[in-house]
Amino acid sequence: MAEISAATVVKLRKLSGQSMGECKKALEEANGDMDKATEILRKKGLATLAKRAERETSEGAVVVWQSEDGKTAAMATLCCETAFVAKSDDFIALAKEFHGYIAVAGATPGANTILQTTVNGKNFQEVLTDVVSRTGEKMQVGDYARFQLDGAGLIGSYVHFNKKVGSMLLIETDSVQVAQSESVKQAAADFAMHITASKPIALDPTNLDPQIVEKEKAIYADQVKNKPPQVVEKIVEGKLKKFYSDYCLLMQPFVKDDSKSVEQVLAEAAKQAGGKATIKRFVRFEVG
Fold first, then answer.
1. Distances (CA, A) of 167 to 29, 47, 60, 63, 145
2. pTM of the model
3. Over the stretch 121-153, which tens digit does the pLDDT of each residue have?
4. Three-state DSSP state, 68
5. CA-to-CA distance for 199 and 215, rounded, in angstroms?
6. CA distance 32 to 49
7. What are the C-alpha distances in Å from 158 to residues 29, 36, 162, 230, 238?
8. How many CB atoms lie within 10 A of CB 46?
9. Distance from CA of residue 78 to its chain's centroid?
10. Cβ atoms within 10 A of the Cβ of 236, count?
């Protein structure tokens, strides 16, 4: 077996971030070969991921990136097992690196897009595995979405102070002037916070899963099944309208003024700017 010098162990430690003991073990196993030792440490990280595959990752952070011109934005969640690790230097550094990967990732939603994105010759799966091997804790990418503006409009985003929940929405306008107006910019910022707090599940009733709607209708009908059919129909219609206002973003009462719906507030903001605006998409991500 090749003699492993302290300088070699220190070099591997700087490259991998592992403890001196782990680096020495890896180098001994690799007979002093630095590349093989690095691979051994990476495999250890993969083994840790596999071993802890069923563990819940209920801690972590929502990360948002937006281009300088405001035309493109992306949001994703980086998750870990414990709050202790979520506050660690390793995780904080990983989240910063994660931000860079989000900036160049593709448009396909989902964690795999981020994991396969390559920066400086290294995909994020490799980066993640390296950190897992140091911390011994399962980490994973949760959700990922990317918005792109093709015309006039703006993208609003918000991440709560605890970094565990955030939202992003895309608003299209009939002119650049409207998109750049203070009233519409403020509305976009307010709506991102509104989404975070109010948890809508669809933009409007047409975007709801038909099965969800039918299930709700059946529940409401069963609650008043002893009443005359025409009465049942009206009651179900009323309850369904309430359901829409609870869970459809455009129909929800605006959190800052519940006398108006989100759709009404946006219309007023756009009118003040001399035009029209429409919310086209939104996402809400939460860790845990």
1. 47, 34, 16, 10, 10
2. 0.79
3. 999 999 998 888 888 888 999 999 999 999 999
4. coil
5. 20
6. 26
7. 48, 43, 12, 45, 33
8. 14
9. 8
10. 19
Q: What does the alpha-carbon distance between residue 71 and residue 73 come to, in Å, rounded to a whole number? A: 7
The radius of gyration of the chain from alpha carbons, rounded to an integer in Å, stands at: 25
Alpha-carbon span 149 to 180, nearest angstrom: 14
Q: Would you put residue 239 in left (φ > 0), alpha (ψ -120 to 50) or beta?
A: alpha
* Structure letter (DSSP) for residue 202: B
Q: Is the dihedral of CA 232, 234, 235, 239 positive or negative?
A: positive
Going by C-alpha positions, the residue among 157, 182, 192, 156 that lies closest to residue 270 is: 182
Nearest to 20 by CA among 41, 39, 2: 41
Please tell me the distance from the alpha carbon of residue 237 to that of residue 168, in angstroms, as a whole number: 31
User: DSSP state, 32?
Assistant: T
Tokens standing for residue 201? 């599940």
Quick: pLDDT tens for 53-106: 567 789 999 999 999 999 999 999 999 999 999 999 999 999 999 999 999 999
Nearest alpha carbon to residue 165 among 191, 195, 139: 195
